[in-house]
Amino acid sequence: MKKSLLTAIFTIIAACTVYSQTTISGTILKPSGLPAQNINVTLVGTYDGASTDEKGFFTFETEETGEFDLELEGTGFVSQIITITIPIESPLEITIEEATELDAVVFGAGTMKAVGNTNQTVMSSLDIVTTAGSDGDIIAAMQTLPGTNNVSEDGRLFIRGGEGDETSIFIDRLRVFQPYSQTAPNTPARGRYSPFLFKGINFSTGGYDAPFGQALSGILALETQDFPTENSIDLGFMSLGVSGAFNKVWEKDALSASLAYYNLWPAFKLLNTRDDWRRAPEGYSGETVYRHQFKKGLYKSYAALEYSRMDMSYNDINQINPVRFSMDNTNFYWNNSYVHNFSKKLEGFIGFSIANADTNINQSADEFKKNEFGLNVKAEFDWKLNSKHNFRFGSEFVGRTNENQDVLQNTTSEITENLFAAYAEYTWYFIKRWGIKAGVRSEHSDFVDEWNVSPRVSLAYKPSKDHNLSIFYGEYFQSPMSEIGYYNPADFMKSKQYLLNYFYQKEKQIVRVELYQKDYEDLVRNDGNFNYTQNGNGYARGIDVFWRNRGSHIKNMEYWVSYSYIDTKRLYKDFPVEAQPSFVANHNLSVVGKYWIQEWRSQIGFTYQFGSGRPYTNPNTNGFLSEKTKTFNTINLSWAYLIDQQKILYISFSNPMGFKNVNGYNYSYTPNDNGIYDRMALKPSMDRFFFIGFFWTISENKERNQLDTL
């Protein structure tokens, strides 16, 4: 009896619930009468809505009644709103206007979509890993884009007259504190992270948005892949080591993991090196990426652990015997992020990253130990009111501690900074083909003991579907924490940036031209005796040009050309006068080509890079940084051969022509008997380099391979 009664009650409740729901359905068509796919249909003011399928059909249920606005939005279509009365008697049939001239403007000043799916993407993930000479390094591939200075002995990103420390790197919106591998003197560092991890790479040479800070010059923002498509195993056997990776996919979870070991001993044995290597660079690394799909959100957790070591001796003109240098480094990075879709219009983000690096260096008779710890916590909301208005606001905390120990001198120094930031940004497409983006960021550092306020504004105009113009003004701040020994800063270092950008895209052609002016204020200066002031200044101005063709001239041939001109001077550090820094070349050129030969099942890669001479100081003449090195030239070649669909042979040659590049000069501290200061050219450890690898993929999809990870 009780069971029958309960059953009846539940039946009545269910019936009432069904009765209270109203179905809204319909079909959305293009003006031609064809179905319009992937149109988001939303009941304004509610979470109710759906998207159209391949037939243009949509359907959803709502408990609302009365008069409501129904908003229609979709890529390539003009957003529109229609008014309906609920309950609705019959399915709707709506015609939506196509945006035939792509009226949506793009805020392109300063930023290049290096990897992504937008119409402003200038490179793909395949481009990055198959660019000859990059050898799978994201940083090396970025150095073929305009706005960068190829500082071959360093390897970091130097942007528009800024030092490597003025560029910050982020993964899933969170800061990476030690993005580069540790290396020996006069040997370039590499980026730590594999390009196949990322579905999006935004490279900003200036004018980046309010959610990012603490970078005077630019940023590299990386976005990890969401879900792998299938279970797979990837194996690599290389001249420099071995690697292995796997993907495991469940219904709502996915796990990726990889292990790698590298050792440059084989290359050093076959090629001549200028340095004496007791232990060639050697390293072990492991990475894991876990994802979980919630009903309205996605959680990602990425962890990476790396250990590297080396031992060598190099020549120094001021030392009778070669200087011994050995180093070992352990680096850990953990990144967690969660994106939640509260509705089709409101998205929330929360995440944190933790990094810790321990480095031990033995140089000459001294030993140095360094520990770097970083924590970044961030929360952000993105609120899209409609197709014309968008708000983004958030806050973050950055904590850093650097501890340095000189074992011989028995001294230890520690610098700690806690930085809080809040930001807001508003985008408004106020007239057809016009848009404005305005943002502000404010930060407080207990190291500087001061607040800053950083306004940023960009205006964009799209005169036609192929052309886009944008201008930008912004202010950027950076803590002087990285300036060793500077314990009592007076202020944040500051740069003001002015940008004018033109972007053209038609079919397989991309042209991007940008003029810029960057003014520096409050840079750190010292007199060489650890006496610091903060009244340094400087400027950088120039033009960047990028041209890419995706096979419209020669079938199966893609290429791009990057050219940058910069005029820059600074009065900072120990500079006695305003001068062009030694890491800046006035002219930089990159030409990258890739050609697929179907009969050979091969892709041939070619990269040429040129840099004009860089300044150096010659104590035998008057003037500071008044002379220049010879020009920098290098040609790199690569060949990827598809043995079968899942087996690839890859060969890369760096500088096979053997160009004798010079990075600068070291001079003796005292003159010789003739009153001349002797010098020694600073050259790479090797003029040439090579890489050979065999890569094998085992997966359910027999068409899948590792060509996009080479």
TrEMBL record:
<dbReference type="Pfam" id="PF13715">
    <property type="entry name" value="CarbopepD_reg_2"/>
</dbReference>
<feature type="signal peptide">
    <location>
        <begin position="1"/>
        <end position="20"/>
    </location>
</feature>
<keyword id="KW-0998">Cell outer membrane</keyword>
<dbReference type="InterPro" id="IPR036942">
    <property type="entry name" value="Beta-barrel_TonB_sf"/>
</dbReference>
<keyword id="KW-0732">Signal</keyword>
<keyword id="KW-0472">Membrane</keyword>
<feature type="domain" description="TonB-dependent receptor-like beta-barrel">
    <location>
        <begin position="281"/>
        <end position="641"/>
    </location>
</feature>
<dbReference type="Pfam" id="PF00593">
    <property type="entry name" value="TonB_dep_Rec_b-barrel"/>
</dbReference>
<protein>
    <submittedName>
        <fullName>Outer membrane receptor proteins, mostly Fe transport</fullName>
    </submittedName>
</protein>
<keyword id="KW-0675">Receptor</keyword>
<dbReference type="InterPro" id="IPR000531">
    <property type="entry name" value="Beta-barrel_TonB"/>
</dbReference>
<dbReference type="GO" id="GO:0009279">
    <property type="term" value="C:cell outer membrane"/>
</dbReference>
<dbReference type="InterPro" id="IPR008969">
    <property type="entry name" value="CarboxyPept-like_regulatory"/>
</dbReference>
